[in-house]
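Give me the fold.
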Amino acid sequence: MGQQSKRSVLIVDDSPENLTVLGGVLRTNYTVRVATNGEKALRVAQADPPPDLILLDIMMPGMDGYEVCRRLKENPRTESIPVIFLTAMTGEMDEVKGFEVGAVDYITKPFRAAVVDARVRNALNIDDTYLQIARRRILHEAAALGGSTSPMPAPPAARLHLLGRARIVVGGEDLVGRIKYRKGIALLGYLATHAGTWQTREKLADLLWPEREAHVGRTNLRQVLSNLTAVFGEMRCLRRNGEAISWMPIPDLSVDLELLSDATLSRLMHHGASSRAWRQEVIESCCESLGGVFLEGFCLPDVPGFEEWLASARTFFQRKTALFFERLWQAQHEDGQLTQAVSTARRLVRLDPVQETHAMSLAALLAELGDRSGALEVLDSLEATLRTELGVAPGAQVARLREDICRSPAPAAKAPAPK
């Protein structure tokens, strides 16, 4: 591999020994940068060019890995960089917290070269896979809209919906009823959210059948997996070997979670004709499938470890959905699509009605559109919701925005903004 084609990995660890070990494993195939604390890691991550992947130690003096990851995911310049935690901790609690702040995987200490190499390669490849599939779908939509006769990849033959009630739609038919076991839904949701990451059978059996002996749990897992494989038929999205199982993205099956991938969220803010066409003709048509609760209505009350993971996953995807809608309305606004931006901002407010910034964005858009009464109605609704649900009044910024809207010149009569 030539030097110019190497991808870059930032290793963040306060231990010189760990930096030496990991650097020795990765330098053959990657350009390696290092940081010994969280503050330096954030500076390096925002440099140009940014790293393609970050290996991040959890336990560091000062700013710990969780906080570093949280700040990376809050920054538009760094949020799409995959993060793998380095930790001596084990257990579902630590994994749940890491998943919640945005990590894609863990590597436990002491490090094994083969594991480090595989996890890094997988984290980089999975994002590439989603990007390739997205490009194929965008090309197909563009060809259909433009009337092109050139051969284009076929649209996905099946769709997996995990936001809202679980559905597997093939040819207009929902196949989810063919899943015989409730823990089949649980396994499907868990694997799909960790797409491209191999999960050991031992770990999955312990997650879903914690009260069973190990051999019984693995037997149950085989039964559930056999049923899932039959439901998906010839679609090779479930990969397995004797020790582990993985969900792999494939072009013939779209998953609604792909809309919330870092690759998609990053592209939402791109400019240019192709990105505008992609947003208008592909992304906007998918908005109806977003906003639902992850695995809505599903629970395994007798499996506390899974329930804890499920609660964190729901919070994670709600935040991702909010970011999706926020990015989309901003892009629509820049494109001059005020009416569409208002519709998207309304979805954002419905998703989290007590979030002041969402309501303020919608009110500002309505005021810009000329619907001053609609803007004030949004702020009134926010105030009522805050007082009813949280027992608080809106902040000073809301009051200032209300004053600005009231002082603005009365607009000419316009059609009401979309509800």
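Residues 151-289 form a domain with the Arc Repressor Mutant, subunit A fold (CATH 1.10.10.10).
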